């Protein structure tokens, strides 16, 4: 029976009603019933006006007018106003929680670590907790912060130190975690590490190390034995030489000695024959053949010894002249002991005079040990083949990719379109024509569709079979202009829908620059921004997306293709897609349902806002007239959108979008439209009532699994770009799973069998193709499930560089956060030696130095010059949580600078092999700004030389840039409303302190940071008499991209820095070709800035 207050109230009402209907009851009874009703009502009212707070709990009130109140209610019974006030109960007792995390150690070993925390909310902050986190505050906060702290702390220790210094590790975790939790008003009563397990590979490596140590001891014994045998050989040879001298003297004086030896030999031979009996064949040793004395010395003019990299020639003669010619780094090919054994073996095989052995050991080995050359040079890096991402066919058996290789002898680029067998990584050349581009798979077989750039400016389509390399391609139509980014989808009946991007003229037709007439005047007029963007002045033409139908027919086995007239999908809409300057194929996608694309909001100022929307264009035949684009709505999100993709299994569409309307580095949130043919409202993954989102990472490009049940994403995560996966359901509470660990994934292609083909790079290799098994990778926390197919540079082995040179560390930043930094050592690093410091500051500022290849800022290149390169990820860096990224706002010269100062202090206190007395600093873009800021502050006096590339010198001049949203966000307002913010962080205000020698590079086509910034800084240095140089390329933008220019850039930079760091100049005196033309003085080789 129910006894709720509402039921009691209803029963009392019924009793009163029945009493009134009876009519014959005494008045006293009626009065008693009324009294009961009144008492019952009072009881119900009293019950609703009271609430209990149990032991170990606290409560707060939510009122319908004032919201959450400030008063905290302790244990016991308290009053409330029914309906108007709602109590919210919190359990304030300590609750245990286990959080497991897969992370990497300082020496890059993966470890599974479990942290047990006893947490409770801070009682006096319960109202704030409810407003920001809700009642499930621990679920929202603890997993992410525990993971982040574990990763940052564990990264400071080697794998062995995690075991030997576990107490120290636990202490750091406890301290950092308590600080992080305090920011969310969560108190931690206990933090303990309950589980620590290394990967099976590491465990096996430890066992292998023990075995290796035993083998090393055995090898040492063998080497020592070889040394002793060598010494014995030398002594024996000396004895034999002395014996030969005595015999020679005896022969000179008398032939009797020879006769005596013959008699002794004859006696020995007779004895052997006697013992042989009746055998027909008898073997005699050399001792019984007499003494053969030859005159002169046998000379071996040349001996050849094969190393891993080829042939090293050691010409050698009786005059003891040895020339050691070396083409690669010695460390890693042979140890000194190994070389010794090979020399002894060589002498034994070639019967070289043993008196040369001591000479070989004393002359050649020191030459090898002293050599520290490297194969990894700017020329080698810039001329290395550069591969595109790999695109698999539907079966996952073949992949298409392009490669380009620059030749510094011919000054030409070589192109190649290749087909790779994914079962073994072998490739076959499909075409080496530079006109062939944009190759993709056509259908589910082995057919390829590609474009050819024609001489008249048009583009033609061609079809061929990847397995028939010598077959003649089939023409498949053409369009009257230059296009790119072709995407196709099979729509049935032998037809394909085709979409591509191209430039549209103001009248909506496809633009062809080859047909453009030259105007009689060069004047350009603008009435609205942009005037110029990135490296280009805007013209009347705009980007657009075009679509058409490609039909196939077969007559007597002969297949032909026909392309319908292309249709401008955006004509008359006022929309532009892809979004310039960097928008590409990630701005649109195609399916049987039509096209989705990204375009900026044309009603807003394009230079002060980043808002771009995703639009849907419904199509069936791809020959119909362009319908009106339908905008996809995203409640509460008004920032930039990108990466719209269709599901292969349904009309679902996924994409990512930011929240802020004027913030280009806001967190990307993943969104999904379940069926775009039925509705265009997108649902957000991990949405939260405070709009921060439940996952503290920024989702990158997205791709569906073939069955449409999973979405894969590329995500910046702890200085890597990793592959993550999540169920394709916006209501999921399970956070995305990490599938890869090291490197930077740049491309992904899910296949029907569940695998994903990824393309990636890392510090050591510019192109790696791999398979990922998502199930195995997720189960193993990304320690398994990745299988290498092909590494373009053999993971650095091509140039003698390796992962052993790379490490990382975390240190306390300027606030309650940790900062990350990479350490890159030379391949010939030797314990006990010291090396100059290269202090690298990345640009952005919302960016990061990641485990990725770069031909512009290659970390390994500087290390191979002889530096210990330390690359910092201070405040503003991405991939370490949105709060660290957002922390740069109005702090350009604040937190990041102090982070770098603390990084310098960490180096001096912990890295004994770094010579900070020979330190240099370098950076580009925001890194260039920071170089200018450092130049004007105390940290600048610690460096021997500085280098700034395309940096910002004067923050008050930022309106000469093009994308003003960037400046207005980072300085928290406009120049006229917040002038003080711009002035506060202005390097130009501190030029009175500039005194460190500095190189500046600034290019003329850099419209993001115009060349005046670099010229002004150079003028200051020159006016102050500070040694300085200025290099500029009139045909380069914010980056130096042309190989010839890039080589000049590298040589100039290395010569400048090396000269001050005490390292040899990179350029050679005879190197006259790849050198910038000095316009007002002689070329200076020393790099010291003097003239």
What is the name of the CATH class of the domain at 802-1061? Answer: Alpha Beta
Q: Give a short account of the largest sheet.
A: 8 strands, mixed
In CATH, the homologous superfamily of the domain at 802-1061 goes by the name Alpha/Beta hydrolase fold, catalytic domain
Shape: globular
Average of per-residue pLDDT values: 86
Estimate what percentage of residues fall within beta strands: 25-35%
Explained architecture:
The protein has 1091 residues and is of the alpha+beta class. Among the domains are: 5-88, no CATH class; 94-198, Band 7 domain (Tetrahydropterin Synthase, Chain A, 2-Layer Sandwich); 204-253 and 296-370, no CATH class; 254-295, no CATH class; 802-1061, 3-Layer(aba) Sandwich (Rossmann fold), CATH 3.40.50. The protein is built from 20 helices and 50 strands. The strands form 13 sheets. An 8-stranded mixed sheet has the order 43-44-46-45-47-48-49-50, with helices on both faces. Strands 11, 12, 13, 14 and 15 form a 5-stranded antiparallel sheet that branches. Helix 4 (137-154) runs antiparallel to helix 6 (166-183). The model is unreliable at 1-6, 19-30, 286-372 and 1083-1087 (pLDDT under 50).
Task: Note the topology.
Elements: H1 5-22, H2 27-48, E1 50-53, E2 57-63, E3 67-68, E4 76-79, E5 85-91, E6 95-104, E7 110-121, H3 126-132, H4 137-154, H5 159-164, H6 166-183, E8 186-198, H7 200-253, H8 256-276, E9 302-307, E10 310-315, H9 336-350, H10 356-370, H11 378-383, E11 386-387, E12 391-392, E13 398-407, E14 412-421, E15 426-431, E16 436-441, E17 447-453, E18 459-465, E19 474-479, E20 483-492, E21 495-504, E22 532-533, E23 536-537, E24 542-555, E25 558-563, E26 567-568, E27 588-591, E28 594-600, E29 612-618, E30 630-631, E31 641-646, E32 653-657, E33 669-673, E34 683-684, E35 699-704, E36 710-716, E37 721-727, E38 737-738, E39 744-750, E40 756-761, E41 768-772, H12 774-779, E42 786-791, E43 806-812, E44 818-824, E45 835-841, H13 859-864, E46 868-873, H14 882-886, H15 895-910, E47 914-924, H16 926-935, E48 945-949, H17 964-970, H18 979-984, E49 998-1001, H19 1012-1023, E50 1028-1031, H20 1043-1061
Parallel strand pairs: 45-46, 45-47, 47-48, 48-49, 49-50
Antiparallel strand pairs: 1-4, 2-3, 2-5, 6-7, 7-8, 9-10, 11-13, 12-13, 13-14, 14-15, 16-17, 17-18, 18-19, 20-21, 21-24, 22-23, 24-25, 24-26, 27-28, 28-29, 29-30, 31-32, 32-33, 33-34, 35-36, 36-37, 37-38, 39-40, 40-41, 41-42, 43-44, 44-46
Helix pairs in contact: 1-2, 4-6, 7-9, 9-10
């Amino acid at each position: 029976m129910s006894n709720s207050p509402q039921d009691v109230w209803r029963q009392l009402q019924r009793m009163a009603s029945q009493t009134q209907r009876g009519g014959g009851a005494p008045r006293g009874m009626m009065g008693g019933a009324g009294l009961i009703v009144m008492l019952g009502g009072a009881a119900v009212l009293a019950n609703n006006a009271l609430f209990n707070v149990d032991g170990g709990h606290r409560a707060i009130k939510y009122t319908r007018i004032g919201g959450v109140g400030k008063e905290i209610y302790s244990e016991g019974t308290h009053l409330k106003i029914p309906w108007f006030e709602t109590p919210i109960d919190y359990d304030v007792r300590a609750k245990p929680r286990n959080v497991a995390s897969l992370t990497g150690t300082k020496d890059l070993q993966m470890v599974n670590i479990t942290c047990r925390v006893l947490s409770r909310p801070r009682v006096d902050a319960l109202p704030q907790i409810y407003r920001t986190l809700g009642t499930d505050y621990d679920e929202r906060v603890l997993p992410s912060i525990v993971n982040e702290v574990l990763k940052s702390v564990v990264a400071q220790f080697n794998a062995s130190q995690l075991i030997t210094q576990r107490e120290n590790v636990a202490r750091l975790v406890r301290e950092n975690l308590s600080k992080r939790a305090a920011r969310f008003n969560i108190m931690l009563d206990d933090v303990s590490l309950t589980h620590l397990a290394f990967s099976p590979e590491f465990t096996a490596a430890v066992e292998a190390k023990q075995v290796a140590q035993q083998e090393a001891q055995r090898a040492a014994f063998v080497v020592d034995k070889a040394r002793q045998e060598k010494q014995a050989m030398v002594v024996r040879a000396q004895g034999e030489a002395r014996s030969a001298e005595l015999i020679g003297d005896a022969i000179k004086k008398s032939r009797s000695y020879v006769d005596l030896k013959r008699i002794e030999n004859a006696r020995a031979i007779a004895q052997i024959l006697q013992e042989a009996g009746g055998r027909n064949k008898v073997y005699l040793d050399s001792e019984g053949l007499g003494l053969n004395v030859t005159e002169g010395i046998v000379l071996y003019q040349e001996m050849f010894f094969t190393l891993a990299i080829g042939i090293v020639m050691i010409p050698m003669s009786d005059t003891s002249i040895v020339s050691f010619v070396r083409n690669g780094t010695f460390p890693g090919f042979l140890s000194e002991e190994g070389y010794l054994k090979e020399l002894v073996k060589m002498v034994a095989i070639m019967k070289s005079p043993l008196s040369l052995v001591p000479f070989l050991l004393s002359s050649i080995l020191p030459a090898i040990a002293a050599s520290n050359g490297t194969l990894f040079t700017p020329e080698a890096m810039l001329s290395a083949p550069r591969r595109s991402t790999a695109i698999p066919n539907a079966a996952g058996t073949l992949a298409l990719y392009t490669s380009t290789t620059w030749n510094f002898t011919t000054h030409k680029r070589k192109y190649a379109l290749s087909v790779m067998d994914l079962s073994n990584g072998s490739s076959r050349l499909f075409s080496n024509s530079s006109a062939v581009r944009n190759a993709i798979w056509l259908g589910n077989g082995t057919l390829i569709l590609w474009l050819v750039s024609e001489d008249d400016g048009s583009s033609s389509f061609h079809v061929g079979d990847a397995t028939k390399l010598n077959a003649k391609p089939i023409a498949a139509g053409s369009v009257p202009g230059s296009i790119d980014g072709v995407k196709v989808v099979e729509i049935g009946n032998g037809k394909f829908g085709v979409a591509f991007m191209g430039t549209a003229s103001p009248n909506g037709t496809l633009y062809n620059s080859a047909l453009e007439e030259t105007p009689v005047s060069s004047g350009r007029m603008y009435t609205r921004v942009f005037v110029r963007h990135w490296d280009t002045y805007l013209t009347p033409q705009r980007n657009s997306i075009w679509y058409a139908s490609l039909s196939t027919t077969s007559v007597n086995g002969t297949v032909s293709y026909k392309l319908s007239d292309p249709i401008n999908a955006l004509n008359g809409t006022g929309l532009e897609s892809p979004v310039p300057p960097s928008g590409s194929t990630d701005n649109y996608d195609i399916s049987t349902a039509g096209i989705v694309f990204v375009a900026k909001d044309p009603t807003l100022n394009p230079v002060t806002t980043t808002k771009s929307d995703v639009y849907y264009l419904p199509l069936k035949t791809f020959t119909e007239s362009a319908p009106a684009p339908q905008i996809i709505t995203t409640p509460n999100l008004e920032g930039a959108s990108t990466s719209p993709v269709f599901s292969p299994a349904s009309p679902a569409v996924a994409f990512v979008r930011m929240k802020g309307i004027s913030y280009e580095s806001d967190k990307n949130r993943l969104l999904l439209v379940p069926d775009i043919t039925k509705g265009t409202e997108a649902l957000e993954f991990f949405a939260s009532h405070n709009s921060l989102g439940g996952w503290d990472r920024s989702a990158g490009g997205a791709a569906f699994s073939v069955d449409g049940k999973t979405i894969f994403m590329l995500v910046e995560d702890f200085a890597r770009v990793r592959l993550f996966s999540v169920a394709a359901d916006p209501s999921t509470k399970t956070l995305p799973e990490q599938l890869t660990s090291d490197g930077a994934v740049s491309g992904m292609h899910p296949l029907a069998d569940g695998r994903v083909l990824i393309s990636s790079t890392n510090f050591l290799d510019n192109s790696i193709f791999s398979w990922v098994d998502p199930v195995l990778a997720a189960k193993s926390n990304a320690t398994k499930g990745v299988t290498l197919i092909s590494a373009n540079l053999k993971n650095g082995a091509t140039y003698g560089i390796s992962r052993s040179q790379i490490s990382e560390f975390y240190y306390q930043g300027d606030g309650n956060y940790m900062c990350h930094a990479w350490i890159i050592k030379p391949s010939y690093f030797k314990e006990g030696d010291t090396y100059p410091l290269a202090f690298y500051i990345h640009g952005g500022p919302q960016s990061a130095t990641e485990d990725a290849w770069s031909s512009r800022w290659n970390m390994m290149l500087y290390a191979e010059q002889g530096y210990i390169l330390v690359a910092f990820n201070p405040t503003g860096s991405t991939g370490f949580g949105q709060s660290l990224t957002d922390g740069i706002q109005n702090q350009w010269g604040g937190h990041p600078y102090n982070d770098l100062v603390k990084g310098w202090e960490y180096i001096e206190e912990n890295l004994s092999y770094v010579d900070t007395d020979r330190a240099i600093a370098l950076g580009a873009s925001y890194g260039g700004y920071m170089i200018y800021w450092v130049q004007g502050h105390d940290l600048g006096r610690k460096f021997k030389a500085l280098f700034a590339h395309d940096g910002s010198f004067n923050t008050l001049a930022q309106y000469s840039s093009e994308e003003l949203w960037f400046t207005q966000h980072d300085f928290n307002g406009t120049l006229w409303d917040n002038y003080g913010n711009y002035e506060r962080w202005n390097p130009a205000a501190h030029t009175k302190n500039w005194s460190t020698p500095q190189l500046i590079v600034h290019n003329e086509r850099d419209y993001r940071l115009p060349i005046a910034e670099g010229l002004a800084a150079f003028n200051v240095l020159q006016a102050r008499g500070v040694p300085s140089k200025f290099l500029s390329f009139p045909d380069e933008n914010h980056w130096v991209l042309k190989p010839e220019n890039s080589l000049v850039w590298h040589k100039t930079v290395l010569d400048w820095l090396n000269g001050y760091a005490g390292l040899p100049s990179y350029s050679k005196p005879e190197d006259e070709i790849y050198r910038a033309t000095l316009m007002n003085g002689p070329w200076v080789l020393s790099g010291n800035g003097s003239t």
